[in-house]
């Protein structure tokens, strides 16, 4: 039985992860869905009311002082079985171009998109280690963006967002090396250009297409031999 934790699960891709995991033939035993304001997370609360597997935990991913308390709550819930899948999904886009936008915005975007996934993963390291059927390894999934690919950058701009996701990619690569001795995988996945509040109405795919594919890819990564990859939502490799 799988235990999954998803950050930023109140809307967009995070909410769809919860929805699609629940629809699986063999759904996770525990889905920890975090959000900043559970009172306002109406759709997520509806999912939690429909299934006892969904547990809503309040988490501002940039509140690093609150992490020990958060991890205690996670450990209490999952017990000795640990956590199998950590999806660092929460993220933000702050607009910074060459001549507009502040240094504070760049730092804030870094904090949300790169430092927070790092701190959360570090805090949950021992919880992830407890998981571990040998052929179905625990995995850290960092939801990144193709906009963080240096190779793919032909249009420039977006300084805060692009660099924060490039940093997240490097964090993922280092994690994949550091965690491999503990039998934990780490991958960066680009969800596609998706119609969410962040992706806007012109996105090429909807959350269903993005997330059903990502769930399949995550399952493949857990049983596969590759690690430290930067993957598209359909499983294709993306150049760093
Ligand atoms: N949509 C796309 O086309 C696209 C493309 C590439 C990558 N991505 C990545 O996919 C992920 C999900 O994006 P989305 O499209 O679903 O965006 P979204 O609809 O804007 O949702 C963003 C989520 O992140 C949460 N969040 C932001 N800052 C947070 C913080 N400090 N603490 C906790 N939660 C925080 C938001 O919570 P609140 O509701 O509380 O703000 C919300 O749940 C992000 O990492 C994004 O960079 C998206």
From TrEMBL:
Per the record, the domain of life is: Eukaryota
Keyword Methyltransferase on entry: no
Q: Which family does it belong to?
A: Belongs to the short-chain dehydrogenases/reductases (SDR) family.
What's this protein's name? C-factor
NADP as a keyword? yes
Q: Which GO terms describe its molecular function?
A: oxidoreductase activity
Q: Spell out the GO cellular component terms annotated for this protein, sorted alphabetically and separated by semicolons.
A: cytoplasm
Q: Mind telling me which InterPro entries this protein's record contains? A: Fungal_SecMetab_SDRs, NAD(P)-bd_dom_sf, SDR_fam
Q: Which CDD domains match?
A: carb_red_sniffer_like_SDR_c
Q: Which UniProt keywords apply?
A: NADP, Oxidoreductase
């Amino acid at each position: 039985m799988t235990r999954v934790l998803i950050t930023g699960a109140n809307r967009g891709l995070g909410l769809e992860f919860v929805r699609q995991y629940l629809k699986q033939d063999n759904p996770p035993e525990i889905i920890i869905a975090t959000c900043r304001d559970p009172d306002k997370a109406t759709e997520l609360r509806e999912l939690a009311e429909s299934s006892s597997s969904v547990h809503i935990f309040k988490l501002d991913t940039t509140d690093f002082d609150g992490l020990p308390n958060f991890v205690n709550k996670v450990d209490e819930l999952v017990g000795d079985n640990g956590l199998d899948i950590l999806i660092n999904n929460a993220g933000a886009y702050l607009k910074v171009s060459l001549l507009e936008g502040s240094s504070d915005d760049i730092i804030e975007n870094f904090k949300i998109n790169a430092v927070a996934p790092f701190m959360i993963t570090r805090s949950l390291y021992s919880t992830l280690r407890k998981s571990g059927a040998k052929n179905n390894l625990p995995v850290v999934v960092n939801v990144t963006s193709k906009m963080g690919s240096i190779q793919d950058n032909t249009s420039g701009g977006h300084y805060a967002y692009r660099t924060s996701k490039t940093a997240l990619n490097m964090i993922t690569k280092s994690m994949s090396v550091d965690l491999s001795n503990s039998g934990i995988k780490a991958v960066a996945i680009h969800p596609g250009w998706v119609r969410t509040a962040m992706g806007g109405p012109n996105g090429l795919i909807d959350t269903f297409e993005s997330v059903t594919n990502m769930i399949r890819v995550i399952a493949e990564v857990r049983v596969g031999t590759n690690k430290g990859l930067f993957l598209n939502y359909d499983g294709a490799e993306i150049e760093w």
